[in-house]
Write a structure and sequence with these properties.
This protein has 5 helices and 2 strands. It is mainly α.
Length: about 120
């Protein structure tokens, strides 16, 4: 997997921000995603998955991963959010699309390297 990144540095920022990335494989960044909006949608998705978890263990696992991703998104931690979104799997993507939380669906898909 080859990565190309460009960084910019601002005296106000404690660390560099990725301004452009060409990645082969799953996205490691949610820099272009509003984490507050994502957290709100993940909360809706988590509730939905919890309602389905009683009869479907895959939904239970996805719901747990989404809950953890929601927590990290609320803290503004994009890289950890990506890692947790990956664990939601295709069940998480499908459920997100089913209930119309498109920002969450796109973020989960990107974290897994799906279109």
């Amino acid at each position: 997997m080859r990565e190309t990144r460009e960084f910019s540095w601002s005296g106000k920022d404690p660390k560099p921000r990725v301004i452009a990335a060409a990645l082969d494989g799953p996205s490691e960044s949610l820099d272009d995603v509003d984490l507050r909006t994502l957290a709100q949608e993940l909360g809706r998705l988590r509730s939905y998955l919890e309602s389905k978890a009683v009869s479907d263990p895959e939904m239970a696992r996805a719901g747990e991963a989404i809950g953890q991703a929601e927590e990290t998104a609320l803290r503004g931690d994009g890289p950890r959010t990506v890692g947790r979104l990956k664990r939601a799997g295709t069940a998480g993507v499908k459920a997100a699309r089913d209930i119309g939380v498109e920002v969450a669906a796109a973020a989960i898909s990107r974290s897994m390297g799906l279109p």
